[in-house]
Design a protein that fits this description.
With 688 residues, this protein is an alpha/beta fold.
C-alpha cells in the first residue's frame, strides 16, 4: 500500500489533461452515439469477466447521457453498482505509427476500460476527464475493435462526494446521499480516440502578470521526447503578437512580453469582454522539425481577493451577480447537453448575470470554453459536497487532493476561472475539518498560486474551523425558509448581523453563494405563501437591501442565487419531483422571480464601470493600481506566516512511513514538501 504522505502530496495529475483537438499532427475520432448497454443487477460481472467477450442481452444507450431516465424501468433509475457500455470502432492503418489515446470526458463514479478484452486503465471520480494511452499490441489497425467501459456509481463514506449504501427490507441496495441532487450516473461526456506523434506536447500552463503597460506571460511546457518547443501568440484577428522558443521542461519556464495587451474582462466591465489570444505550441523533434502542434485560447488578466479591497480583476473591483447551477435536464440527466447549455447562456444574458459557480462539481470543458469567450466569470468547484466529520479521514483526503490536482490541471488555463472552490457545505464545525481543509487549501494554493481558494460554508462564524484557511468566504443562507418559514420580516436583520459577524471573525472578502426559496411553477397566492411564485419573488427581494448596503463596504463581493433552474433530487417529502428553487423551470421557462432577478441584475450591470480593453488606457483611468495581482498580494502574507508557505521538498521514505495521522502529515507538510511538477524559475525566451 502506498504511504499516506506520498499520496497526499505527489501531484497525481502530473500527466497533462489537454482536451483532444485536431491539428496538423493530431486526429480525433468521436465515439459518441449509440452504445450497447447492460446493467449488472446481480453484482457478478467482474467475477464473470464480462469484458472478455461481447456483451449479451444488451439494450441501446446514448453516449453521452445519464442512463437513469432512459427507460421505464424503476430498477435502472435507482440502480446501485456496475453498468457496462460497449461499442465497436475502426482504426485506420495510418494510426499504426501514432500514439493512440482513449479520452473519456466524464464517467460517474468509477470507470474501467478494456479494448478487445485487454485492460486499458481505470479512473475514480466523476465530472473530470481521463486519458488512457492504448498499447499497440491490443489494437487491430485496419480492422474493427471492441471498446468496453464499466461504470460503478456507488458512493461510500470515503468517496468524493461521499455517501453510503443500505439494504432495505426487500433486500435491495439503496444509495444514501449526503447531497441534495440526484446521483445521475453513466458516461456523461464525450468518448473520443485521438492520436499524437510519439514526440508530443503533454501539458502547458500559462499565467499573466501586468506591469507598466506590458503583460508578462509565464509559460511552462511539458513535452515527451523533445527538448525544445516554439510558442506563437496571436491576437483575436490572427495576427502574430510574439513568438519564441523555450525548453520542453516543466521545471523551467519561459516568459513572453506583450506590449499594451488586450485584457480579458468579465461581461459588463468592458466593451470587449472575453477577449482571447491564441497560443500555438509547436514541439520540435530530434531532427529540428515540428513534430506536434497544439493550440489553446488564452485571456490576459489578473485576479486577487484582498481583505481590505475585496475581489479585484486586473486591479479593479469585481462584483459577482449570478447563479449556482446544475448540469441537469429532462431525460438526459447530467449528460452533456449542448442545446440546453446554449439556452442557459442566453438566459444568463437575459437576466444580466455575470458569473456562475459550478455547483457542486466540475462542469464540461465545452461550458468552460463558452465562459471564456463570453466573459462569464466562474467559481470552479470540486465535487466535495456534504462532507461530514466521519468522512474527513486519510482515504477521503487522498481522493480529494487527487481531484483538486486534476481540476487545476484541466482548468488552469481558463481565464474565466477566478477561484477554486474546494467544497460545498462540509461540516466545518467538526474538529477534523481544521486539519483536513488546511491540507486541501494549502495543496490547491501550491498547485495554482494565481487564484484565490474558497469553499461554501453553511455554519456559524464562531464555530467554523475551516474558513481560516481560505482567501474568500462563500456563505449559503436560507433565512425564513428552512427555519422560521415565511417570516420575511426577519431576513434583512438576520442577514446583516450574520455577514458582519463573519467579517469580524475572519476579516476576509465575503459573498453569498446561495440563498433562495422553492416555488412550484403556476402556484400562486395573494398574499404570498411559501412555495408560490409570489413568495419566491418577495423572498429574494428581502436580501437585496443588505447586499447593496454591504457592497459599499467593499468586503462584500457577490451574490449568487440558488438556483438557476429546477433540478432533480432523490425522493423525499420536502422535494416535489426535485428541488424547485430554480428561477426557471427544468424546461427553462421563467417563474415570477426570474423577472425580479432580471430587474436587479440588469441594474447592477448598467451601473458597472466600463474599463478600457487595453492595458495602457486602463492604467490612465483605473480606480486602483493595475499591477495588483493575487500572487503579489499573497507574497507578503506568505512571508509573515510560514505555516501557509507552499511545500518545498519531498520527504525521505522513513518520514513517509512514519506519517500515521492527519496531524503528523500536517506537521510534515509545514516542514516542506513539493508536489510533483511544481513550477521552477522562469527563463526569458530568445526570439526564434
Amino acid at each position: 500500500m502506498r504511504m499516506l504522505l506520498l499520496l497526499l502530496l505527489v501531484h497525481r495529475a502530473a500527466a497533462g489533461l489537454l482536451h483532444p483537438q485536431d491539428s496538423e499532427s493530431r486526429e480525433v475520432k468521436d465515439l459518441s452515439g449509440m452504445w450497447r448497454f447492460k446493467a449488472d443487477a446481480l453484482g457478478t460481472s467482474m467475477t464473470e469477466r464480462w469484458h472478455l467477450a461481447p456483451l449479451v442481452g444488451t439494450q441501446a444507450m446514448p453516449v453521452p447521457c445519464s442512463y437513469n431516465d432512459m427507460t421505464q424501468d424503476r430498477s435502472l433509475r435507482d440502480h446501485v453498482g456496475m453498468v457496462w457500455y460497449e461499442r465497436d470502432f475502426f482504426l485506420p492503418m495510418r494510426w499504426a505509427t501514432q500514439r493512440v489515446v482513449l479520452f473519456v470526458g466524464s464517467a460517474q463514479y468509477h470507470a474501467q476500460a478494456w479494448v478487445n478484452g485487454a485492460p486499458v486503465g481505470a479512473h475514480e471520480g466523476g465530472h473530470l476527464p481521463f486519458h488512457l494511452a492504448l498499447q499497440p499490441a491490443s489494437l487491430n489497425f485496419g480492422k474493427s475493435n471492441r471498446l468496453t467501459i464499466a461504470v460503478n456509481n456507488t458512493l461510500t463514506p470515503t468517496t468524493v462526494p461521499a455517501g453510503y449504501v443500505q439494504v432495505n427490507a426487500a433486500s435491495r441496495r439503496v444509495q444514501r446521499l449526503q447531497m441534495d441532487f440526484f446521483n445521475y450516473a453513466g458516461i456523461h461526456r464525450q468518448v473520443m480516440l485521438y492520436t499524437t506523434p510519439t514526440t508530443y506536447l503533454d501539458d502547458v500552463s500559462v499565467t499573466s502578470r501586468l506591469e507598466e503597460g506590458e503583460a508578462f506571460l509565464n509559460v511552462f511546457v511539458s513535452a515527451v521526447g523533445a527538448t525544445t518547443v516554439l510558442i506563437t501568440l496571436k491576437d483575436g484577428r490572427g495576427s502574430v503578437v510574439a513568438r519564441g522558443r523555450m525548453p520542453a521542461d516543466p521545471r523551467r519556464g519561459g516568459r513572453l512580453n506583450v506590449q499594451d495587451p488586450h485584457l480579458w474582462w468579465p461581461r459588463y466591465m468592458s466593451a470587449t469582454p472575453g477577449y482571447l489570444y491564441q497560443i500555438q505550441v509547436e514541439v520540435l523533434g530530434a531532427d529540428g522539425n515540428v513534430s506536434d502542434v497544439y493550440r489553446l485560447a488564452h485571456g490576459i488578466r489578473t485576479i486577487a481577493a484582498l481583505p481590505d479591497r475585496g475581489l479585484l480583476i486586473n486591479g479593479q473591483p469585481l462584483y459577482l451577480h449570478g447563479f449556482g447551477k446544475h448540469e441537469d435536464a429532462d431525460i438526459r440527466g447530467r449528460g452533456l447537453d449542448l442545446p440546453t447549455m446554449v439556452k442557459d447562456f442566453n438566459l444568463l444574458e437575459w437576466t444580466g448575470g455575470n458569473s456562475i459557480r459550478t455547483s457542486h462539481y466540475p462542469y464540461s470543458e465545452e461550458l468552460m470554453l463558452l465562459c471564456d469567450r463570453q466573459g462569464i466569470v466562474v467559481i470552479d468547484e470540486a465535487p466535495a459536497v456534504g462532507l461530514q466529520g466521519h468522512n474527513m479521514v486519510r482515504e477521503t483526503l487522498v481522493r480529494h487532493l487527487d481531484i483538486m490536482g486534476e481540476l487545476v490541471m484541466r482548468d488552469k488555463n481558463h481565464p474565466s476561472v477566478i477561484m477554486w472552490s474546494i467544497a460545498n457545505e462540509p461540516d466545518s464545525e467538526s474538529p477534523a475539518a481544521a486539519a483536513y481543509f488546511k491540507h486541501v487549501a494549502t495543496q490547491t494554493r501550491a498547485l495554482d498560486p494565481s487564484r484565490p481558494v474558497t469553499f461554501a460554508t453553511f455554519k456559524n462564524p464562531d464555530k467554523d474551523v475551516a474558513a481560516q484557511h481560505v482567501d474568500l468566504i462563500m456563505i449559503n443562507r436560507y433565512f425564513a425558509w428552512y427555519t422560521n418559514t415565511g417570516q420575511l420580516d426577519i431576513i434583512s436583520l438576520s442577514l446583516e448581523q450574520d455577514l458582519m459577524a463573519w467579517r469580524r471573525a475572519f476579516g476576509k472578502p465575503i459573498m453569498i453563494a446561495e440563498y433562495g426559496a422553492d416555488a412550484v411553477a403556476g402556484l400562486h397566492s395573494d398574499p404570498s405563501y411559501s412555495f408560490t411564485e409570489e413568495f419566491q419573488s418577495e423572498y429574494i427581494s428581502e436580501y437585496f437591501p443588505i447586499f447593496d448596503k454591504l457592497r459599499a463596504e467593499r468586503f462584500f463581493v457577490g451574490e449568487h442565487i440558488w438556483n438557476f433552474a429546477d433540478f432533480m433530487t432523490n425522493q423525499g417529502v420536502t422535494r416535489v419531483y426535485g428541488n424547485k428553487k430554480g428561477l426557471f423551470t427544468r424546461q427553462r421557462q421563467p417563474k415570477m422571480a426570474a423577472y425580479t432577478i432580471r430587474q436587479r441584475y440588469q441594474a447592477l450591470a448598467n451601473s458597472t464601470q466600463l474599463f478600457p480593453g487595453r492595458l495602457r488606457a486602463l492604467q490612465k483611468e483605473s480606480v486602483l493600481p493595475v499591477g495588483d495581482g493575487y500572487d503579489e498580494a499573497q507574497a507578503g502574507e506568505a512571508a509573515a506566516d510560514d505555516s501557509e508557505r507552499p511545500p518545498r521538498t519531498l520527504p525521505d521514505e522513513e518520514d513517509v512511513v512514519s506519517a500515521q495521522s492527519l496531524e503528523e502529515a500536517a506537521a510534515m507538510l509545514e516542514a516542506g514538501i513539493t508536489p510533483d511538477g511544481a513550477m521552477g524559475p522562469t527563463h526569458v525566451w530568445q526570439d526564434s
